[in-house]
Structure formats: C-alpha cells, structure tokens
Amino acid sequence: MSQGPYKAVVDPVKCLGINKCGKCIEICGFNAIEEINGKALVNNKCMGCGLCISKCPSKARILTPRPSHRIKLLDWSSKIEEPTR
After folding, report:
1. Whether 6 contacts 26, CB under 8 Å
2. What does pTM read for this prediction?
3. Residue 54: CA count within 13 A, CB half-sphere
4. How far apart are alpha carbons 8 and 63 in whole angstroms?
C-alpha cells in the first residue's frame, strides 16, 4: 500500500500523552503512532488517513503535505476548444 500525499504531525506540547489519552494509538490501523517520552508521536508508517486527527481531543495533530508528493496541476487551456457557430 502506498502512502498518501499527507502525513499526520503532532504538536508534543498539545498532546495529552498515552497515559491520559492514547485515542490515536487505538484508532490507527497502520501502527503509525508510537510512544516517545510519554507522547504519542507519528512514525514513517503514517498513511495520511486522518483518523488520529478526528479522535484527538486536544487537537494536537494536523495533516501536512509530504515533500515526496507533489501535486500536479493539469493545464487544460490547450484542451479547451472554442465553440463553433
């Protein structure tokens, strides 16, 4: 399974920690959250699904774009035809 264009990032100051919360660890099906110094931090297994963000009561998580994924914009200007009259 390939990773999505986003990755969850944690603000360790806002994170309540696994002893007080741990909801993100419970919901993550990718084992992408691990305990480091009592905080629930995201590792490189994150798929960017956002489930941990939806369960975080302290709003300590956000999705950020992965540097390895670039959004490609399509140039449709050459594909648009003028209507015929």
Report:
1. no
2. 0.71
3. 7
4. 4
Distance CA 1, CA 84 (A): 46
Q: In the beta sheet, which residues pair with residue 39?
A: 36
Residue 7 region, left (φ>0) first, then alpha (ψ -120 to 50), else beta?
beta
- Closest by CA to 3, choosing from 46, 33, 43, 61, is 46
Instruction: Give all domains of the chain, ordered by start, each with its CATH number.
Output: 6-65 (3.30.70.20)
Strands (E), 1-85: 6-10, 33-36, 39-42, 61-65
- pLDDT digit string, tens, across residues 65-74: 887 766 665 6
